[in-house]
Every structure is written in C-alpha cells, then in structure tokens.
Amino acid sequence: MKKYDNFCSNLAVLSQASAQDMNNEFIISGIIDKFFVQFELGWKLIKELLKYEGSSVSASGSPRAIIKEAYKMYDFFDEDAWLEMLGQRNDLTHIYDGEKARKLAALVVERYIPEFEKTKRYIDDVYGDTIESL
After folding, report:
1. Which of 1, 7, 23, 30 has the CB geometry, 3.0–4.6 Å to 41, for a possible disulfide?
2. Is 39 exposed, middle or buried (0-12, 13-18, 19+ CB in 10 A)?
3. Which residues in the chain belong to E strands, given as ranges?
4. DSSP letters along 68-104, please?
C-alpha cells in the first residue's frame, strides 16, 4: 500500500531527529515540517485501515473523526496523543516564536515519534503482508 510505504519512509527520516542539533533553527524547522507530513500520512493511513475494516467513519474527511474511530477500534491507539498532534498540526502555521518551535520539536522527538513508531509496529503485527495488498 502506497500510503503505508510513504508513512514508513517519512518515519525513517523523522526518527533521526533525536540525533540532530536541537539548537539549530534550520534543523528545528525541518523536524516540524517532517512532523506535519508524518501526521498527515498517519491519519490518512489509519483512515484506509478503517475503510478496510468496514468502518463507515472512513468516508469522513475529518482527521478528528478518524482519530476517534481508531481509538474505538484499535487497542494500541492513543487518542490523546493523536488529538494533541492534530492540535499541534493545526497550530503549525501560527508558530513565529523560536522558543515555541523548539518546544514543538522536542515534543515531536519525545512523544510523537514514539507514537508513530508504535503505530507502525502495530500495523506490521496485525496486517503483516496484507498491508501491501490493501
């Protein structure tokens, strides 16, 4: 599945964030940009999995609805973390303050990347080779 492949490829790059210079503004903006892309790939991948599972909510274009439904369907899914990411994603265009950007980049490294990695592990475990045929 192309969405899964893109999710994994972007995550592989984003996962390198913890090894970067978190005092470098260019690096921080790159982490935030990659996070934005990763979140978009993530909720859209979950939407496809919900569709595969027969959920009518998958017809929704709302990330919030998809996140809430995923929480109901998947025991691994951390609704609070994903809703927090949605809020951060929505606020990304309003970050003009370097300190806020540094805090968001740290949050991406400490909280969001592990959540994306957990999602990938779960999908690998549950869907295995099936994911490629979805």
Report:
1. 7
2. buried
3. none
4. HHHHHH-TT--HHHHHHHHHHHHHGGG---HHHHHHH
Q: How far is Cα 11 from Cα 5, in angstroms, rounded to an integer?
A: 10
What global pTM score does this model have?
0.94
* DSSP tag of 115: H
Mean pLDDT, to the nearest integer, of 47-53? Answer: 96
Number of Cβ within 10 Å of residue 13's Cβ equals 12
Give the C-alpha separation, 38 to 47, whole Å.
14
CATH topology of domain 2-15+24-133: Four Helix Bundle (Hemerythrin (Met), subunit A) (1.20.120)
Q: Identify whether the C-beta of residue 7 lies closer than 8 Å to the C-beta of residue 38.
A: yes
Amino acid type, 74: Y
pLDDT digits (tens, 9 = 90+) for 62-87: 999 999 999 999 999 999 999 999 99
